[in-house]
Structures are given as structure tokens and as C-alpha cells.
Amino acid sequence: MEFIExxxxxxxxxxxxxxxxxxxxxxxxxxxxxxxxLLAKAGIGPAYLREANKGMVAVEQNLxxxxxxxxxxxxxxxxxxxxxxxxxxxxxxxxxxQREELAAESRNVGVHIDLDDRKARPFPADIQNxxxxxxxxxxxxxxxxxxxxxxxxxxxxxxxxxxQMNKGNRFINELVFEQLELKNRDVVLDLGCGNGQxxxxxxxxxxxxxxxxxxxxxxxxxxARKITSxxxxxxxxxxxxxxxxxxxGHFTKICTVNTIYFWEDxxxxxxxxxxSLRSDGWLGIGMRSRSSVEDLPFIxxxxxxFEPEEVIQLLRKNGWIIHKFIQKPxxxxxxxxxxxxxx
Length: 343
Fold this sequence. Notes:
31% strand
């Protein structure tokens, strides 16, 4: 998400202390005013909070003072959401003076609460969707371009999209790899590995396991090779789901998260998985259900969505045995994990 203006004001003498500059309490006050404008962009405004009897509370604030602000100075605050969770949001503010110099910045965590029992509560689905749209979009990116970047990240924009996907997909990645029950000496393919950031943890956790990342975005292959260059048990290659660049029976496990929407011919891809796996191999598919994401604006451009039951039927039709099926809530959406074995 790009920064948006959330506050514009003037500093008066009563904002200042005996040092002659704005006192710390007023930095907090200005950033607090900006926070409410930012929250309103996601539908968390006064009308919603009053009608739903909900509140937003700060649980963490990290503030940096970079330049003095003096009486008579004009200030502008720009803000953006960084990450949305089920019950909380992470966001940041930047305060500039009239010379457009950065004077202060603040990183914050806000939690959504019920005002009756004072406990944290999940955001409603419509607000979760608005937060997701804001975080995964920029004013210069149209939904169709964002969809293309999610399918095949390219250039500087693709690198940023990949970083956001690392955050948004963390839970579902962990779920699928956990259910694959990795063992020493496994040879594991992550199809659609993105920038390979997740390998930096897996490679340390399973030092005797070989991890192979395959992605068909040259930008991601380059980034993944750079990020994983210090890990001897990680290999990154360019390739596609329907044409995995390894010999038959090479892998003991295959993981693929949030790629199924882009398979041109799912039956061809499943046959390629079959070819690439050993006879006792496991396949782990991670995805979001159609009902979980169908309202996102970029979904209409190039995504083929499924409900879990449809994927299970597709696997069975193509000769796979369903070993595990798990569906859990994951922040704004759901996380679906299907583990299948060869017959």
C-alpha cells in the first residue's frame, strides 16, 4: 500500500515545551489523529464503531524523532497499513515539515475490541477484505496488474508483491509443510517458491533435507537464488507446473501453495506431479477456498477458484489418494491444506 495523507496541521506555541520545540505528547496526539483517518479508509470509522459497539486500542507504538518541530511549522502526516491480522492491524505514520523533510515516524499495532467485554474480536469479513485490498494494492496498480503480479511477479513491483505474499502466506505455508511431515533425506519441491524466503527457515530446521524451489518468474528465480545463496541444501530453478525440470521420481514430497488458480490444465499438472514424485511420494496443496476470496477485486483477472471438495474430486479422478484434509481460519481468509498420495 502506498502512503496516503491522513493529517495536515499547524504547530502552535502551546504545543512546545521549555526546549522550544514540540513536546513528545503532541507527536503522539498528531499521530493518533492520523490513525483515525487511516482506519476510516478501511471502514473502521466512527459509524461502524458506534453501531457495532467496537473499539480500536493501541497495544504497541514505536516512535522515532528525526527533526525538531517548532512553533509555526506546518506538518503533513502520511500513513499506510503494513499488515492485517484477524484481530489486529500494523500500520505506520510519517510526519513531514513544510520543507518536506521527514521529522518523525511511528510504527503501531492496533487491536479490534468489543467494548462490552473489552476483549479482542475478529474484524468483520467486509473490513478484512477492505484491509486486504488496501495492503495488496497501490494507487498506480490496477486490479488486473496486481492479478498478473500475483501470478508471475516481475520487476520492482513484483519484488514488493512477493514480500507481501511472504507475510500473507506464512500460515498456510507452515501448515502444508507441517502436514507433509518432512524427514531427513527427503527431497522436497516447492513449486511456485516465490523469492524463497521460507527456505531460509526450513533449511536450518531440516539440514539433512534437500529443498528445491521452482518458479516461472525470472524475477523470483533471481531473488530466491540471492536470498538462499548461503544454504547448501537449497536449489532454485526456473520451470513451470506442467514442465518440472527434473527427472522422473526425483522428489519424495511436493508442496505448492496458492498456484492452483493459475494451472492452465490441472490434469496435466497433476500428471507432471505424478511423474516427478517417487512411488511413495506425497503431494501437499495449499489454497484459499473460492468463498474466502471471491470478493477481492483482482480475483476476476486470471484466477480460477475452487472449493476444497472440487480439488479433492479432481485428485481422486486422477488417481490420487487423499491422506489429509485441513481447513482453518487464516487472518482475513481461510487456509486449505490437502495432502495426497500416489496409488
